[in-house]
Fold these 4 entries.
Entry 1:
Amino acid sequence: MESDATAIADKEARLRSGLRSMGRVLLAFSGGVDSAYLLKVAHQELGEGVVALTTSSPTAPQGDEDLARSLAGEWGVEHLVIDANELEIPGYAANPTNRCYFCKGSLYDICRNHAGRLGIEWIVDGVNRDDLGDYRPGLKAAEENNVRHPLVESDLSKDEIRVLSRRLGLVTADKPSSPCLSSRFPYGTEITPEGLHKVAAAEDALRRRGFVECRVRYHGTVARIEVPVVEIPRLLSDEVREPLWQEIRDAGFLYVTVDLRGFRSGSLNEAIGRTPASTPPSGDPPAS
């Protein structure tokens, strides 16, 4: 255990040294576990040399933007909140398998414009070591925009970032992952403002009932609920099931179903290679 603690401390020291070597950075800040930890450390090391940028978008859970605003304000970090609408990006709403390529490309364009205006050379984000093993077309967009991943450069995993976040007393230390609401739509299903609103309302209904880790997958008239397997019995209990069903119906779904495999992040990626997709999963933009 002592050797593990030493290894994590060494990684954090590497992170702090790397940030100091950059001098000034603009951080794409979502308010999640990774970017919050990175922002805190960057502010400790660079002070006014770090600027956070968050996009305000209909595809982002409102609670994440609220938390990002709160943390940046609490820490005294310069924080840019820029209106953005991914649904206006050509090709995005069709929901191809490389949808995240378009989203991240737009985000990094915004970051690059503001970094240039502020005279900041480096754009950084909260990608961690574990993210490299998942299907993430957004990494291609980051590479094309010369975005650096300080947590990867320091070899920090998600679990290690949570440990270090607890040591810093960050409220995000145990925050569940919160990807954009578009990730609730199967690839090839059009993403619409109405659909996003339905998903957000349905997930809010689950969280108000204490389901912290949850997803509502959008299948047209059907809402497919994912919660951890151990919480399915409570979900189906008499006191929860009926009022929850009614509230999700009120959100706009006709049918409500439960995924018996339970919650798993990125479950819609399971369909890649098994069903026809509108674009190949290479991360490349579709041919014009």
Entry 2:
Amino acid sequence: MKEFDFRELQRCSTRAPHCKAIIRQSPADFRVAEILPFEPEGTGGHHWLFIEKTDTNTDWLANALARFAGVPQVAVGYAGLKDRHAITRQWFSVNLEGQEVPDWSAFDSDQYRIIDMQRHNKKLKRGALQGNHFDITLRELSGDKDSWLEGLMHIKQHGFPNYFAEQRFGHQSGNLFRADQWFKTGRAPSRRNQRSIILSAGRSWLFNLVLSERIKFGSWNQALQGDVIQLAGSRSFFHVADVDEIIEQRLAQMDIHPTGPLWGRGRLPNSALSQQLEETVLLDWQPWKQALEKAGLSQERRALRVFPQQMNWQFVDNQCLKLSVQLPAGSYLTALLRELGQINDASMAINTGDDSFEGAE
């Protein structure tokens, strides 16, 4: 049986080991606002609701909307899961075509409230997200202020490794143990949603292994010969046979990012040193690679680094730091925080395995 120690294996690009803090001592210490890539059209049978919720599970709230509107659960859509132990703002859509429109003002409660309503002609689908804006409070800081400032400035200027965070892998890495059992025995879970979660965890783990190795050799934010490069802010990629000054300049300007593999069917699109590194890192993971291919997943790429937007901070006092930052969809705030130091999540003591995904997907 493989061991999956996320904290030990996933290297940081830079971190002051004596810097420590606590997040989420209360929901108000962790605020997330969803950013859509487009505006609702203003007409149509789908009612889009921008809802602020406190200490509330995303899926539970979607079901509550369905019950209130008298529609099946499938009629309600949302772009992604958001933290329960937080104050979050996210969009939900409710298909009311042919249905009577309810009095939405009666839906509000002490834990959630509708703050905006729009109409659109389509359902809000999973993944239809540009990013998330975070306003968080770190408390009980230890370590000197200069070390905190150095870490914050480094991330603002150079970005941070685009790890899939621990919550991707389930409580105590349970999804990875399930993946290992499935991939070795061939016995897949019976439920489709469980299979999807486990497959995502498996390919995410392989990506993290490659990213960790590139951090080890200092190439997580640089291009290797044969790399596949992603254009910042897009899903466009191109192959780099040789790294020249233009590529290095564009990397420094955060215009492009090196990528790593999301494993699946098909040949690796990279070559030379880049491909050699990935094949070497994943040499002992053949059963996993074969199982992901057999499951029908295709080879994809993911940026190795994240460049944060609108990143600002304020030291309230020597024990408290307020951080504001906007991250693109698919990235994790915890991946940023672990670059600063040892950040302990106070909500984990009461976490029941719900949707603590930080609006990452």
Entry 3:
Amino acid sequence: MKNRIVLISCLLLGLMFTSCDEVIDIDVPDNTEKIVVEGQITTEVDSSFIRLTKSLGYFDNTNATPLVTDAVVDVNGISFNHIGNGIYKASSGYVGTTGSIYNLKITHQGKTYTSSSTLEPMFEIDTVVSYFKPASGFIEEGYAVAYLAKDNRARTKYTYFRFGFTNKENTEGKDSLFDVRILFDNRNSVINEPFVFELPFLRLQPNDTALLIFRSIDEPVNRYYQALSNRGNAGGPFSTPPANLPTNINGGALGLFAAYDVKRFRAPITK
């Protein structure tokens, strides 16, 4: 009886170790290289460009991003030539025009990639003002910044906004933008009705200069930046698993091609 118990125990132990040898197949992401597009057409002179790189494989530990330097690139029939670091630009003096649709065409190694983006006009911004406010809760005393504006655009239009400040003593005159993207639309705005918007939680001091950058964007570009913002906020136990960002590039490439009407404002803070 004792020998039988020992034999049964040995058999169970053997089965346990045998089960550890089961082969488990794990699906890994496709290792195929893809063209990655980072492109913009703007209303600022000579700021338009197309940058082309290649995606890295899932198990690729290469630190350097592969550059694409031998593509044929044009926007609305105008050639963008490679100037280095995977960046393609048009001839000097190129500038985008509001109300235009920009069509991108990229040809590389027998494949063609296309995209389009509408250069929507920005809403009207009259001025940027600052005013002193005492400390309130966790917000220290200082100068709040607000812009006075009016939106006369047809519904629905989207805006991509960033802001920050510069201080000659602390940043040696370099622009210091906060790492936050603010996306909004004009669905709740009253057409042609002036309004004032104060930048949230911002308090500056004398000798600072407030920086505000507004970019008009179309709906596909807005969708891309929304997804990018959501990815940045991910990480909780119920968050969506990571995935490729939505792209407006056709032909199997990744990335974004965007047209912007850019408005920049600098507001020095004085007592």
Entry 4:
Amino acid sequence: MRTLGIITRRELGGYFSTPLAYVFLVIFLAGAGAVTFYMGNFFGRRQADLLAFFGFHPWLFLVLIPAVGMRLWAEERKSGTIELLMTLPVTTGQVVAGKFLAAWAFTAIAIALTFPIWISVNYLGEPDHGVIVASYLGSLLMAGALLALTSCLSALTKNQVIAFVVGAAASFIFMMSGLDIVLGFFTDWAPAYIVDLIASMSFLTHFQTITKGVVQVPSVVFFLSMMAVCLFINVQIVELKKAG
């Protein structure tokens, strides 16, 4: 655990050692405020809730998460520091987990910095804080699953731009897989269990379930399972690259 903590702190410090991290934070916070108060018609709805705020989180994450995750392994491979990293007395699993936890912590900081919006809605009315807390939890879980997916894809390339584009595309596919427009493509020829499987993989569906204020175990297990599976694949990819 001590080794994992050292790796996590090293990686998290790396984010704030460059101005790029602060640019990401500013863009995310500005985007969150804009979509909530303007695109979400916050004042026009005259309701003291954060439905508009959390409703746009999945789409904000399609940009923020790949931007955060693209550097996890692509930068290491491009600079050649991955070879040096792997010569240290640490396991591949510890490195993968440490990098992921650092990126997740950075994302959690970005999400936490949106607290003024929560304060604003309290000033304007009496929101259901249970729903808001559940929605923040769902947002954090979804961000973790998207990060694990992006980290896995980042390990496949040395180019951060490619890692960003592929990560964003894969995240979009998982986000949209539960919508009728996507499922309709499969219902005409695929067995029902295949259609149900594709529908169950939708990040958006599980996130929207949590934002209703009910933290259902299947949705939590889904996001945690996605993290575990993607990180396991991430370890295998790094091991293969190292052996090659």
